[in-house]
Write a structure and sequence with these properties.
This protein has 96 residues and is mainly beta. The chain is built from one helix and ten strands; from the N terminus they run H-E-E-E-E-E-E-E-E-E-E. Strands 5-4-10-1-2-9 form a six-stranded antiparallel sheet, with no helix packed on it. Strands 3-8 form a two-stranded antiparallel ribbon. It has a two-stranded antiparallel sheet with strand order 6-7.
C-alpha cells in the first residue's frame, strides 16, 4: 500500500510542473542562460531546471530578449535569465 501511495505522490508532484522550454545556451561569465520557450513565462514565475546532476528551482526576477528587459515572454521567444547554478544546453525548464 505504501508503494502505491508513494507513486501517487510522485506523480502528482511531476504533474504540478509543466515543461516550458529548454536551455539553448549558457554564459558562465555572467551566470546567465538562454531559454527557448515552448510556453509563456513572466516575471515572478518559479521555474525548475533539470538536467545531468543539476536540479534546482528559482524565481524569475528579471528577463531579457536581445538585451532588452521584458516583463513577459511568449511561446517561441528565446529569453535570457540569470541563473543560480551552472546549466548546460539541453537542460529542461519547467514552470511550477
Amino acid at each position: 500500500m505504501f508503494h502505491k501511495v508513494y507513486k501517487l505522490v510522485i506523480t502528482l508532484i511531476i504533474m504540478a510542473e509543466k515543461e516550458i522550454g529548454e536551455i539553448s545556451n549558457y554564459f558562465e561569465h555572467v551566470n546567465a542562460a538562454a531559454i527557448k520557450l515552448k510556453s509563456p513565462l513572466k516575471i515572478g514565475d518559479t521555474i525548475h531546471i533539470k538536467g545531468g546532476e543539476t536540479d534546482f528551482e528559482q524565481k524569475i526576477e528579471s528577463m531579457q530578449i536581445n538585451r532588452q528587459p521584458i516583463k513577459a515572454a511568449k511561446k517561441g521567444d528565446e529569453v535570457g535569465i540569470l541563473v543560480g547554478q551552472k546549466v548546460r544546453k539541453g537542460y529542461i525548464v519547467f514552470k511550477k
